[in-house]
Amino acid sequence: MPVKPDVYLFGMTILSTIHRLSGDYPEPDTYQEIAQTHVLPGGETGNAAILLARLGLKVRSDGTLLGRETREFLLRFNRGAGVDCSGMRYDPKFEGWKDLVLSDGRHRTVFGWYQRMFSDKGGKKWTPPDASALRAARVVSIDPFFQKESEQAALLCAQIGKKYVTIDCGPDSVCHRHSAVNVVSQEFIHREFKGADNAALLRRYVKKSRGMTIFTFGARDLWYARQEGGIRRFTPFKVDVKGTLGAGDSFRAGILYGLFRGWEDSKTIRFGAALAACVCRCFPVALHPPSLGEVVKLMKTRKA
User: For residue 31, is it within any domain?
Assistant: First the structure.
């Protein structure tokens, strides 16, 4: 029988093949050696689940449909990491969610089949949220990618007063409107709002939700705001970077942890940034998730 979760994660868990390059990312029509190859769980929810379990929370992952090429490995690895995937369904006709990642440490490029996967051909490759597991959890995370099912999860949270964190969704979206926190990445801003004034865009987000909106910009200062205050900034922790893969997912995981603990905004931001920095000091994150002690130790290197 599944354990009552501290956090219910509804979103993307995939099987990633990660190639770590021996040097800098190559120019077109040149060559670069592959130094390491890892086949590991990935995705926004997949990475966050492993990190939160390592931090001591009881984690339930859901949403992604397991396929014939992903089911056995993902279930085995997550079981070993302490992540409950018992609600994830299996379709033997589906190969499974996968991607290929090239990383030189400072940069990463993801190659996938997502457009094909998100088409309705052959049916949806995800399932509706588990209402009972969502209700049982203390806090919730919702990836916005699963269309009406993501909106369903957000609306259910709103109906029962359950706080949730989401990522990379527009200011007019259902997922943003009801969120406790929306973490919006530099990549999403550049893709969806290229050329926009970031301060004006953040104010637009803030008007549409009573929660906190965070804009992240990689190694540069992140911005965060609520309706009742102005824009605040936080400078990420400086560490010896071994890899940036999973940094954004780990920051969101840290925000979830702060929401679970009931911390105020500035402490939650500091924890999320520290967790992301700890992840950047190791590679790959699924094999080396930082402990709570490591994150707290890094936080103490800087005054609040």
Answer: yes
> Which ranges of 240-280 does DSSP label H, i.e. alpha helix?
247-261, 265-280
The DSSP code for 146 is G
Rounded to a whole number of angstroms, the CA Rg of the chain reads 18
DSSP letters for 180-222: SEEEE-HHHHHHHSTT--HHHHHHHHHHT-SSEEEEEETTEEE
Segment 178-210, tens digit of pLDDT: 999 999 999 999 999 999 999 999 999 999 999
Under a CB-based contact definition with an 8 Å cutoff, are residues 260 and 252 in contact? Answer: no
Say how far apart CA 253 and CA 224 lie, in whole Å: 16
At residue 48's C-alpha, the angle toward residues 66 and 139, to 5°, is 100
Note if the bond before 284 is cis, omega within 30 degrees: yes
Maximum distance among all Cα pairs of the chain, rounded to whole angstroms: 55
Distance CA 2, CA 13 (A): 19
Domain count, the chain: 1
How many CA atoms lie within 13 Å of 109's alpha carbon, on the beta-carbon side? 7
275-284 pLDDT, tens per residue?
999 999 988 9
Its domain, for residue 290, covers 12-299
Q: Tell me, what CATH number does 166's domain have?
A: 3.40.1190.20
Q: 1: which 2 tokens? A: 């029988």
**pLDDT tens digits, 124-169:** 999 999 999 999 999 999 999 999 999 999 999 999 999 999 999 9
